[in-house]
Automatic annotation (TrEMBL):
SUPFAM superfamilies: Protein prenylyltransferase
Catalytic activity reported: geranylgeranyl diphosphate + L-cysteinyl-[protein] = S-geranylgeranyl-L-cysteinyl-[protein] + diphosphate
Keyword set, alphabetical order: Prenyltransferase, Repeat, Transferase
Protein's UniProt name: Geranylgeranyl transferase type-2 subunit alpha
GO CC term, one of those recorded: Rab-protein geranylgeranyltransferase complex
Function: Catalyzes the transfer of a geranyl-geranyl moiety from geranyl-geranyl pyrophosphate to cysteines occuring in specific C-terminal amino acid sequences.
Similarity-based family: Belongs to the protein prenyltransferase subunit alpha family.
InterPro entries the record matches: Prenyl_trans_a (IPR002088)
EC number(s) per entry: 2.5.1.60
């Protein structure tokens, strides 16, 4: 996990374990080179990936073994597929951000149909998979692997509903305003999750999004994730569709003036909030009030001298977006 300090000394027991794992890995690779698809080789590879779930080569090797089972009895295939999913779940609980393991799970779900596993069983697998994602997100709500996997699985299952994603991100954001992944997936799905032809619905949505952001800012003025999402909204919530970029909202000067007033109210309470001041600069420039923007940049240099060079560059490029 990020921010965790690790010791530099390794115990003799750990060295012995690593040596044993290295030997198992060497033998597993030999089996792959020899194209050994026996149950004995499978058991050996299983031991290695349980301890080292980032090994792409050995996960790929397991796929060769799994594909070799095509045509076997349906009950046997279902058991093997469930066992394989349990194996990857065990690995992910130990290493939640192992790319290779997440990709292997996606492959298992996508390949189940070609392996002629029946629809009812596949549906059950997808339901369990979505439940696993929720479990992983409870452990670490910002785990972008779990977020991406949740979206991929929904698409494979034919259950990708942008409105449902937006609703789920709202739950996660309300639990933690600093959840960058939740804000990101909200922005990706927002345009698809509402009737964009309905102006009244759009106006209501914009008001609701701003209200949610207000709560985030007053709860944690340093929540970078919320400020990034806010900037996206102020730019009209751009999204990409049918080969072009469009804006979800038509942002007018009157709206920007109201937001500038609200931003200043926050600054009055939190005068050292860098993100609030940067947003004030952005709003002032959008409204053509450059002199006031420059004064605000001067204040930023005083409260955040570590980024003096950035602020000087910002001041010298008055037409540049903040």
């Amino acid at each position: 996990m990020h921010g965790i300090m690790y010791g530099t000394e390794t115990s003799s027991e750990e060295l012995s374990r690593l040596s044993s794992l290295s030997e198992l890995g060497r033998r597993a690779l030999e089996c792959k080179v020899e194209a050994d698809l026996s149950d004995e080789a499978e058991a050996l590879v299983r031991k290695v990936v349980e301890s080292n779930p980032d090994d792409y080569t050995l996960w790929n090797y397991r796929r060769e073994w799994l594909l070799s089972l095509k045509g076997e009895a349906h009950d046997r295939l279902v058991k093997v597929w469930n066992d394989e999913l349990r194996l990857t779940e065990k690995a992910l609980l130990r290493h939640p951000k192992a790319y290779a393991t997440w990709q292997h799970r996606v492959w298992l779900l996508a390949e189940a149909k070609d392996m002629e596993i029946d629809l009812a069983t596949r549906t059950g697998l997808f339901e369990k998979e979505l439940a696993l994602c929720s479990k992983m997100l409870k452990m670490d709500a910002r785990n972008f692997h779990a977020w991406a996997h949740w979206e991929r699985v929904s698409k494979i299952a034919g259950k990708h509903e942008p409105a449902r994603v937006v609703e789920y991100t709202e739950q996660q954001i309300n639990a933690d305003f600093s959840n960058y992944s939740a804000w990101h997936y909200r922005s990706v799905n927002l345009a698809e999750g509402i009737p964009i032809q309905d102006k009244t619905a759009l106006d209501q949505l914009l008001d609701e999004e701003v209200d949610r952001l207000r709560q985030a800012f007053y709860t944690d003025p340093d929540s970078q994730s919320a400020w990034f999402y806010y900037r996206w909204l102020l730019n009209g919530a751009p999204y990409y569709s049918e080969g072009k970029t469009s804006a979800l909202f038509n942002i007018k000067d009157e709206f920007l003036k109201n937001e500038l007033k609200a931003c200043q109210e926050l600054i009055d309470l939190e005068p050292f909030s860098k993100w609030a001041l940067l947003t004030k600069v952005y709003l002032l420039r959008r409204l053509g009030r450059e002199a006031e923007a420059e004064d605000t940049i001067v204040k930023l240099t005083e409260i955040d001298p570590m980024r003096l060079g950035y602020y000087r560059n910002l001041a010298s490029t008055s037409t540049r977006a903040v």
